[in-house]
Hints:
mainly alpha; 257 residues; 8 helices; globular; single chain
Amino acid sequence: MAHGAILWAVVFFLGAAWGSFFYTLALRWADGSFRESPWRALATPSRCPACASRIPLLRLIPALGYLIARGRCNSCGVRIPAAYPLAELGYGALAVVVALRLGVNAPGAVLFLVMGLAIAIAIIDAKTMEIPLPLTLAFVALSIYPIILTGSVRDTLLGFGIAAAFFVVMLLVFPGSFGGGDIKLAAAMGLLLGFELTIVMIETALVTGSVAGVIYAYRTKKGLRVRFPFAPFLAAGLVVALLFGRDIVLLYYRIMF
């Protein structure tokens, strides 16, 4: 019992630590810090966004560091946004769910990183209306190991083709509805997911995106043709497909057949 609790605590902590990296990467890309060399984020020390003072190691502990600092910079006293610890907690919770669904193993860990990067891309798109090509390519690179494990080139290519073709057709039918970055990211996700899970991803993205779009249009009074970042819904579709896609596909077959 104690060993199990320690294991899940470690999984949560590691997920939160990676969440801190992904969230910081997203914010720094969005503000232009790493657009020329995004991989500097791996080696650049964390600093206060207000006074640029280096953050002490103790205060970099996911979530706990925020409490130790009482939500403020140790040097200048400026308040640290609560979004930082919330992002860390969210990534930690995601790591636990991934471990429960996919197991505490190498494939599960890689798929967590894939989802984590997709969420970071979604944050960037929400802030800038841009999906960075280098991060989409990094998504493909992280996907290579899970793709190899599936062992089905045909299924992988089907997923890629369906995702790319669907969004290209949607763009032709509804000009301006999606950007080139959306198509590239969706195709990269299809490459990872294969045929059936790509369908789940697309359906989830369209449903959640449509609901959010209607709510946004109603609250802002800007109408339904307003530009809207779609990467957050692609990321949601990816997470749902990877964690629950097989169950959804089986349910679909039971209903239909």
